[in-house]
Target: YfkD family protein
Amino acid sequence: MNNKYIIALITILFATLTPFVFSAEEKEEKKDPYTVPSHVLDIAKENTYPNSTEDEEVIEPSELTKELIDSSDVKITNPNLIKMLNESTLDPSPIAFGYRGMVFLGRWPLNYESSDTNINWEYQKINVNELNNLGGKDNQKLNYIQQEQKEIKGALTNKIANPSDVKQMIIMKAKQQTKLPLSYNTTIGNGTKKENSYSVPAQKYGYLHAFAPAVNEKGQVTFGEVYIQLKGTKKSLVIKNVTKQGIGAWIPIQDHVSFSFEIK
Model:
């Protein structure tokens, strides 16, 4: 077999196998980073404390509000600002030729842009169960039982104007990104149990640590002074003195517990 034939054969094999290599790499890249791992369990049904589901109100802009938002060069997603614009009544007279006016609506957080979304599956330790099998001859099972009620609170990581509006925009973006049940406050009730069990060998001591997971969101908020400009029968939104501020937030994942088993 001459060298030219060998080189040609290798080239054909490489060309045939390369798509499979790329396909595997693409599949790895498409893996959802927000998939709940096997050691994190949903305890919504078992939780002795009934957490209320926080569904952020989706405010649909009216036709007038859409017209105003589209007239601005700055993106507006703040639901509270959209709600206020929906409730505004603007009806300039059709004969108001030459009429001009500016209505100041205040300084608002206009939108939030996310730059990084990560999950800390061990955000806050909430419980530990122990089993002493040092004098035992057989394996024993260790189960999760919540020893006391724990409230897990999320928060913004630094001070910012209009924090309630900012928190609302951040959690809406984080929910959209992760598809997880997020809440700035969630509680694990005393006596909450889960059927998952862990085997503690004879002559060993077992520890079952439980943690509350949370999403860490980082991004940027755009602020601006909002005006409605009236020119005759035309209406538009004018944004002045636009500024941007970096912000972050910790948002607990509601009714989820992360487990870590340790043997000594």
